[in-house]
Amino acid sequence: MKVQRLYVVYNADSDLWSLLVDVARKLAGRDECPLCTLTHGPTGERAAWKQCKQALKVPVDAVHRDELADELRQIDAPLPFIAVSIGGRPELLLDRVAIEKLRPEGLEQALRERAAVRGYTFPE
């Protein structure tokens, strides 16, 4: 089955105060969201993440914990996680444990490999 969309669900809120706290934590080396560390540095999106999004060729929705739609709340996994839309419904792809083991340069490969194990493919 083809992946239709990627949901990147952060363990952080979307408001300005949370953003400032997140930047301060990154600078201090105390980030509480390993997915935030994979996709963003202190000054914005990492180049590896930008390249990953482009290479996967699907829409990517960045979702913060205070923005979770009901369909994503149905996924039984602690934040953060990455899910994909398959047949119009979200499916867990990478959980927190898997995310914690990754480096920014390895995210695309991990997403492709995990998708393949589950019988999913990204567009060519």
Your description of this structure?
It is a single chain. With 124 residues, this protein is α+β, with helices and mostly antiparallel strands. The protein has one domain (5-117). The chain contains six helices and six strands; from the N terminus they run E-H-H-E-E-H-E-H-E-E-H-H. It has helices at residues 16-28, 34-39, 47-56, 70-73, 96-100, 107-117, and strands spanning 5-10, 40-41, 44-45, 60-64, 81-86, 89-94. Strands 4-1-5-6 form a four-stranded mixed beta sheet. The protein has a two-stranded antiparallel ribbon with strand order 2-3. A hairpin with a 2-residue loop joins strand 2 and strand 3 (44-45). The longest helix has 13 residues, at 16-28. The chain is globular. The relative contact order is 0.25. The model has no long low-confidence stretch (mean pLDDT 89).
